Amino acid sequence: MIKPSFDKIFMNLAEELSKRSHCIKAQVGAVLSKDTRIISIGYNGPPSGTHNCDEEWPDKGCARDSKGSCSLALHAEQNAILYAVKNGAYLDGATLYTTLSPCLPCARLIYSAGIVQVFYRHSYAEYKGLLEDEGVSFLQKFGVKTSRI
């Protein structure tokens, strides 16, 4: 019997978590792990206790900010990191699995949290129509290993 790698298991879990998102524009999931153990999970959506976009604004989603992004939601990576920190997890040396490569603000948070490796499935630049995955470039520049799988 062939056993799946932890990378495959965690990326598949991130895909499944993305289905929990209430965003009507994009569904993104994330898993934080260390030493083959899950530290935290997350998916994009509004902060707990606020409005769920698909319930409050089912036709068009929440209001957009000046850059055309959701004005309410946290990204999946942000949710996973914030939940981990809120619960006292130590993220130094952790690995992040995310269904969409990190945007630049998330990349800065990932680096600052001490996460050393990021696996992603889809390109944020391709999704947004940008020339470059700025978040991936930032992480690579500062020594965080990144891989698209």
Automatic annotation (TrEMBL):
Entry annotated with the keyword Zinc: yes
Domain spans labelled CMP/dCMP-type deaminase: 5-134
Pfam families: dCMP_cyt_deam_1 (PF00383)
Cofactor(s) needed by this chain: Zn(2+)
CDD domains according to UniProt: deoxycytidylate_deaminase (cd01286)
Keyword Aminoacyl-tRNA synthetase recorded: no
UniProt record similarity statement: Belongs to the cytidine and deoxycytidylate deaminase family.
Protein name listed in UniProt: dCMP deaminase family protein
Taxonomic source organism: Albibacterium profundi
